[in-house]
Amino acid sequence: MALAKLSELLSSVKDNSYAIGSFNVSNMEMAMGAIKAAEKMQAPIIIQIAEGRLRYSPLEILGPIMMAAAKNTTVPIAVHLDHGGTMETIKLALELGFTSVMFDGSKYPLEENIARTKEVIALAKSYGADVEAEIGRVGGAEGDYKAVDIALTSVEEAKCFAEETKVDALAVAIGTAHGNYKETPKLRIDRLKEIAAEVSCPLVLHGGTGIPDDMIKKAISLGVAKINVNTECQLAFADATRKYIEAGKDLEGKGFDPRKLLAPGAEAIKDMVITKIKLFGSEGKADE
Ligand code: 13P
């Protein structure tokens, strides 16, 4: 098992009964924590990094770590570039062996998004990799990018986009946003239902942090097959690290050793990913 393709993982989801969790990582501990959770739960997962994070975590350094971590497992793990915006970065991810890339053309008019996505698909397919695209615009801020407003996905545009590009997965904007919500988000379940009725490719929900559990379950039942979680990964890591430091352990004995300092963060990511795997219903699906 081990390294898997996005399309294999998403096509194994039958009857809208579960979704694959896609977790953003920005260092080795986060990647290893997420993968330990997947192994414990015998669940397939995706580990991903967004282009907006690469200033801190260069793809040429973190990419091979993600690839090695994914190959060295007993469960299927896809390695994905999240919110790719430039051909240069997309090409680098493909060169490193990432099994899929997202091209985020949501800022372009429909025709241009279609044309650019087709270019990315042609390139990715030459590497045997899959492509996720976005139609409409998920709100909030991802990495170094500025916050943007939500632009709900139009059903007609989603249908046209999916048919024209034959993309492997399509991120739709149904009221979610990247980052922490100021108030509980209200997902446009009605819009998701309409999109799912017209679009046959697997749908992706971005902005997975802070969405109430019942809405997540409803979205899965309507055809969301991949759910992205970033902010909660960071919060879990930061909270555990802060607690460790506040307890003064970093100053005692060999508590300053990076192995001790970063271990609680990795453990916290593992616990958080386990919670998500249970919520998304992908526990025990490694063999499907
Ligand atoms: P959150 O940061 O809201 O979890 O969103 C993650 C995401 O959609 C990454 O693409």
Structural class: alpha/beta
Radius of gyration: 18 Å
Q: Uncertain regions: pLDDT < 50 for 5+ in a row?
A: none
Major beta sheet, strand line-up: 1-2-3-4-5-7-9-10
Counting H and I runs of at least 4 residues, what is the number of helices? 10
- For the secondary structure, the number of strands is 10
Strand coverage percent: 15-25%
**Biggest β-sheet description:** 8 strands, parallel, barrel
The N- and C-terminal alpha carbons lie at a distance of 11 Å
List each distinct ligand once.
1,3-dihydroxyacetonephosphate
How would you spell out the order of helices and strands?
HEHEHEHEHEEHEEHEHEHH
Shape: globular
Give the helix proportion (percent range).
40-55%
Structure report:
The protein is 44% helix and 16% strand. It is α/β, with parallel strands linked by helices and 288 residues long. Helix 2 runs parallel beside helix 3 (59-71), helix 5 (110-126) runs parallel beside helix 6 (155-165) and helix 9 runs antiparallel to helix 10 (258-280). The mean pLDDT is 94.
Tell me briefly what this model is.
With 288 residues, this protein is α/β, with parallel strands linked by helices.
Spell out the blueprint of helices and strands:
Layout: H1 6-11, E1 20-24, H2 28-41, E2 45-50, H3 59-71, E3 77-84, H4 87-95, E4 100-103, H5 110-126, E5 130-135, E6 139-140, H6 155-165, E7 169-172, E8 177-178, H7 189-198, E9 203-205, H8 213-221, E10 224-229, H9 231-246, H10 258-280
Helix pairs in contact: 2-3, 2-10, 5-6, 6-7, 9-10
The structure holds 1,3-dihydroxyacetonephosphate.
1,3-dihydroxyacetonephosphate is lined by residues 24, 50, 82-83, 142, 178-179, 206-209, 228-232.
